[in-house]
Amino acid sequence: MAKIKKGQVDSFIDSLADCGTTISLTNSYGILCNMASANSETTYTTTGTTLGSWQKTLINAASEPTITGATKVFGSDFAIGVNMYLIAVHNGARIEYYFEQIVI
After folding, report:
1. Could you give the CA distance from residue 73 to residue 17 in angstroms, rounded to a whole number?
2. Residues whose CB is less than 8 angstroms from the CB of residue 49 and which lie 6 or more positions away in sequence, other chains included
3. What is the pTM (predicted TM-score) of this model?
């Protein structure tokens, strides 16, 4: 396995302008999605099963989003109409997700 040099990790993290309703769990270094404009979807599906993969999506929804086939774990309480992050992770046994409040 090649060693990662300082500052090199950024090139491994993917970024998507809009993920729509799909959470991609294909990159163990992570995927950032909708960082410029919050996603308002309320039902997501997943693609990929790469061990340790994750996706962080900026959301702002009218009701609490769910991810089909995933397990919700402890995080921030969902807030209607507020920018939050939806984090999904594949831990090798199951897909878990939670909400993270953005504090400015």
Report:
1. 26
2. 25, 90
3. 0.87
Residue 87 near residue 56 (C-beta atoms within 8 A)? yes
Answer yes or no: is 77 within a domain: yes
Total domains in the chain come to 1
Q: Is residue 76 part of a domain?
A: yes
Render 13-49 in DSSP notation, one character per residue: SEEES--TTEEE---TT-EEESSSS-B--SEEEEE--
Lookup: tokens for 48: 């990929």
Question: Would residue 66 count as lying in a domain?
Answer: yes
List per-residue pLDDT tens for the chain, 104 residues long: 455 555 544 568 888 899 999 999 999 999 999 999 999 999 999 999 999 999 999 999 999 999 999 999 999 999 999 999 999 999 999 999 999 999 86
Provide the 10 A C-beta neighbour count for residue 15. Answer: 12
Q: Is 26 within the bounds of a domain?
A: yes
What range defines the domain where residue 89 resides? 9-101
